[in-house]
User: What shape does this take?
Amino acid sequence: MSSDLLADLTPGGDAVRMLDLSTTDADLLCVVAGERGYSCALADLAGCHDKDEFLARMAEALDFPAWFGRNWDAFFDCLADLSWLPAGGHMLVLLNAADLQQHAPESFDTAMAIMRDAGAVWAERGVAFRAFVSGSMPVPG
Assistant: This one.
């Protein structure tokens, strides 16, 4: 894992980064996040083929509160809140995202957009928020 990735844990910039990470790399990112006073949630999306499963895995990884409504609006609301995870910044590490991207591309795109929007909210507050998404297929550009 490159040092520039670790240097990128600051407020602002693109909140979502697509890259290849091993489980070891993901664990290291969470250790570094903790050392910097950030929360880190790790979610394995292997076999995740739809929106409902994605939201369930994110709710578990981030320990969403009972009021989480299991829809896109509630996903954004939780990501923009995270008051139950007090920290100086927040990081999400999503492994094996290619299954969701392949089987539910609209849900994948919506999830990425919501994470970017949440990142913008956190950046306005001067707080770092990053989602590292691994195992995703190349996004057409």
